[in-house]
Amino acid sequence: MARERLYLFDTTLRDGAQTNGVDFTLADKVAIAQMLDALGIDYVEGGYPGANPTDTEFFASDHHLKTKFTAFGMTRRPGRSASNDPGLAALLEAKADAICFVAKSWDYHVRVALETTDEENVASIRDSVRAARAKGREVLLDCEHFFDGYKANPAYALACAKAAYDEGARWVVLCDTNGGTLPHEIEAIVGAVVKAIPGDHVGIHAHNDTEQAVANSFAAVRAGARQIQGTLNGLGERCGNANLVSIIPTLKLKPEFAGKFDIGVSDAQMKKLAQVSHALDERLNRGSDRHAPYVGESAFATKAGIHASAIAKEPATYEHVAPESVGNKRKVLVSEQAGRSNVLAELERIGLKVNKDDPRIGRLLELVKERETIGYAYEAADASFELLARRTLGTVPDYFDVTQFDINVEQRDNAKGERVTVTMAVVKVKVGDDNMISAAEGNGPVNALDLALRKDLGKYQKYIEGLSLTDYRVRILNGGTEAVTRVLIESEDESGERWTTIGVSPNIIEASFQALMDSIIYKLVKSGAPA
Ligand SMILES: [Zn+2]
Questions:
Q1: Ligand 1: distance of its center to the CA of 176 in Å?
Q2: What phi-psi label fits residue 142: left (phi over 0), alpha (psi between -120 and 50 degrees) or beta?
Q3: Cα of 184 to ligand 1 centre, how many Å?
Q4: What share of the chain in percent tops pLDDT 70?
Q5: Of 51, 166, 177, 450, which has the fewest Cβ atoms less than 10 A away?
Q6: Distance from residue 290's CA to the centre of ligand 1 (Å)
Q7: How many CB atoms lie within 10 A of CB 37?
């Protein structure tokens, strides 16, 4: 049986931009659009030309994308003609392949919010679709509050959708604008709509207010809809939009959908999914959700010993899909509960070849347990575990020594009479026979120490140029008589690879120093820096 084409529409740059605390610059928008284009998304909605300077500028030039670049805007205002509406005119002038209009389809909203008649609202839909078609654009109509509207007045909600379809709109998109509709309701209502409008012209736009936006999207597809709208990482106002990062692999990897549909994302493109998801978080300057389905760091992580030995033998026994298919990787957590099989599986994953009867493995396991008792948590610090393993197996060079460091924190009034806190770190490093001194100011002691440490490592400096810290987390542990501090540092390099290192000490600076050193040494090992 020939598979049907199912289309993906991304609205990260329009609906996703409504997220609290998200404010895309023009450069962000261009970069994200290129990323979505490379991923194979069919439609990328760029924003609302005419509504703000960033969006207007974004739509003023051609971005040479393969995707259908889509402008979003309102249908003509009630009581005006299409040719005499400046908002509509700006939309029609935008450099876009498609135009997505939003219109009300709930009679209650038409009267109360729009303060017009049901008939005038339908006429506005018809005129707007016609005007955009006359400009040669592909047209979509987002039917706002469609499901609530349909429950209140099915004939009217359908009349709004049908008006757009009859005028030649390529897609009529049914929006669950407040996200309150449940999957079985979505399936029933979409099922009714596709009796009047062919399913290959019907789309679904779901919000996540009951945490079922993804399920609602699939319910609509089961009922016949053939376009799914969503955002990267489920970005969107309130609880977010349907998450395309979860939808794409489900469509491609689950037989119910994979057997029936083709989407624009190829297998090779899907291998970039984890990277795309993390790159968006990076741009938003926030940590990625470790527990995100498919792409989260923990999505394919296992802790218990019996599972780890089974995974090492046959991964498919415990994984619902192959982690590599979405660009993620399997991870066996090394923890207090871990057995020998966990450690062996992890050593294999990081590419350390050892005989499984090697006595040094027993020593490594002891070491991990000992250190976890005093506060280390290796399951959260993959790079520190790798270094510990390499050191126990005798393979980490002594690249350099930090012979001394000193951090000075000073609070005083500056020349303008303002109270300021100034931090400076001085680090003495010995690389081979060379002794180096570096000093740096930072916005705090750890930042100053980090900057001073990475300022001059002599012959190793070139290996760490691309290294940057992306996250720093501190936790105070109350074990025994005195509190100890656990520091986790996440780093990234020029290739986009991320790793986490750990330090534990009663002194926060000392704990941070350990984690910073592990991060630098891990990078040198990974880059193959000579001893
Ligand atoms: Zn929305």
A1: 7
A2: beta
A3: 20
A4: 96
A5: 166
A6: 25
A7: 17
Say what the pLDDT of residue 100 is. 98
**Rounded CA gap, 419 and 415, in Å?**
10
Q: What is the mean pLDDT of residues 419-446?
A: 94
CA of 130 to the centre of ligand 1 (A): 24
User: What one-character DSSP code corresponds to residue 513?
Assistant: H
User: Predicted confidence band at 377 (pLDDT cuts at 50, 70, 90)?
Assistant: confident
**Ligand 1 mean position to 204 CA, how many Å?**
10
Q: Which residues pair with 525 in a beta bridge?
A: none
Give the pLDDT of residue 393. Answer: 87
Residues above pLDDT 90, as percent of the chain? 74
> Tokens 């290996």 identify what position?
463
Q: How far is the CA of 131 from the centre of ligand 1 (A)?
A: 24
Task: Provide CB contacts within 8 A for 442, sequence distance 6+.
Answer: 423, 424, 425, 448, 449, 450, 451
Number of neighbouring beta carbons within 10 Å of residue 263:
22
Among 3, 486, 464, CA closest to 251? 3
Identify the pLDDT of residue 204.
98
User: Which has the minimum average pLDDT: 138-147, 184-193, 337-346, 358-367?
Assistant: 337-346
* Among candidate residues 172, 95, 97, 85, the one with its CA nearest the CA of residue 131: 85
Please report the pLDDT score of residue 336 as a whole number. 47
208 C-alpha to center of ligand 1: Å? 10
| CA 12 / ligand 1 centre spacing (Å) | 10
Q: Ligand 1 center to residue 298 CA distance, Å? A: 29
Smallest CA-to-CA distance from 76 within 45, 47, 114 is with 114
- Cα 178 to ligand 1 centroid, rounded to whole Å: 8
Residue 415 alpha carbon to ligand 1 centre in Å: 51
DSSP assigned state of 61: S
Residue found by looking up tokens 């955002």 in the block: 231
What's this model's pTM, rounded to 2 decimal places?
A: 0.75
Report d(CA 236, CA 230) in Å as an integer: 9
Distance 231 CA to ligand 1 centre (A): 10
CA of 153 to the centre of ligand 1 (A): 21
Q: Cα of 414 to ligand 1 centre, how many Å?
A: 49
What's the CA-to-centroid distance between 3 and ligand 1, angstroms? Answer: 29
Q: Considering only CA atoms, give the Rg of the chain.
A: 28
Distance from the CA of 191 to the center of ligand 1, in angstroms? 21
- Token output for 520: 């630098």
Task: Give residue 142's pLDDT band: very low, low, confident or very high (50, 70, 90).
Answer: very high
Query: According to the model, what pLDDT value does residue 320 have?
Result: 93
